[in-house]
Design goal:
Strand content: 5-15%
CATH architecture: 3-Layer(aba) Sandwich
Helix content: 25-40%
Structural class: alpha/beta
Order of helices and strands: EHEHEHEHEHHEHHHEHE
Shape: globular
CATH class: Alpha Beta
CATH topology: Rossmann fold
Number of domains: 1
Length: 272
């Protein structure tokens, strides 16, 4: 049995970004640990979803434990930092936000958990945090340093396939999804230019199709953020599998003795 640790910025990131990988690892008998930098205090709740006086922080904490149960994760931890809010928000600069945290200090907090778990693989985000969110970028920085401190064999940077996003947008009408007209060529590429990485830069994939319904159910658990009419949940099944049936990663370096868990779940792309 191996151990997978997935380090994320906010509750619901684990479902969207690595839900299929988590479910596949757990189903194969591996130990899975989820670590969150924040509790998503500055998320935007679905209108009307919170009861009178209900705190978003507590709601999102409860939702992530339910998501973890659905996915089969064994442990959930929070590093205790505050959500920085979306890129450009005033909360980005608050001294207690995760974006402003000292990277060395935050990495030491994470490394305590890594030393306890001795993971075979740690997942983080790419250097742009997938789409530029300051907390996601900080996860990249903190995760890489913590992995060095704790000598984690493999660090897999979760990202999105930018070319696949473009293809999905082009095929939206074929999938029965209403989407605005997207210009061809370079204009279309620029429309998702900050999302993920070009296909040629991706090194590994995890096939999530066998666990696609588990992933979708874990996303539903985050009802404060992803309502039933959200485009991700309202997609037809075939479209959801097309978009979310593969999870993409960048692995800069592999040890000579590749962990069994990594070899079992992560397949090289055709570019590697």
């Amino acid at each position: 049995m191996g151990t997978l640790v997935c380090f994320h910025a906010h509750p619901d990131d684990e479902s969207i970004g690595t839900g299929g990988t988590i479910a596949a690892a757990a189903a194969a008998g591996h130990r899975v640990v989820l670590v969150f930098a924040t509790r998503g205090e500055h998320g935007e709740p679905v209108p009307g979803v919170l009861a009178e006086g209900e705190q978003l922080t507590l709601r999102r904490t409860a939702e992530v434990y339910e998501s973890a149960r659905i996915l089969g994760a064994h442990r959930v931890e929070f590093l205790g930092f505050t959500d920085s809010g979306s890129e450009g928000a005033d909360t980005n600069s608050l001294q207690w936000s995760f974006a402003q945290a000292d990277v060395q200090h935050a990495a030491r907090r994470l490394s305590v958990i890594l030393d306890e778990e001795r993971p075979d693989v740690l997942t983080i985000y790419d250097d742009n945090g997938g789409y530029g969110h300051p907390d996601h970028i900080q996860v990249h920085r903190v995760g890489r340093l913590a992995a060095q401190m704790s000598e984690v064999p493999v660090v897999a940077q979760g990202t999105m396939n930018r070319d696949l996003i473009n293809r999905a947008m082009s095929l939206a009408k074929d999938f029965g999804i209403d989407a605005p007209d997207i210009a061809e060529g370079e204009q279309r590429v620029e429309s998702v230019g900050t999302f993920g990485k070009p296909e040629a830069e991706l090194t590994h994939v995890v096939d999530c199709c066998a666990n696609i319904e588990v992933k979708r159910e874990s996303m539903r658990a985050h009802a404060s953020q992803i309502g039933p009419d959200h485009f991700m949940l309202s997609m037809p099944d075939v479209a959801f599998e097309f978009v979310f049936g593969t999870e993409w990663f960048i692995v800069d370096e592999l040890p000579e003795d590749v962990p069994e868990l990594f070899g079992e779940l992560f397949a090289p792309t055709t570019q590697t």
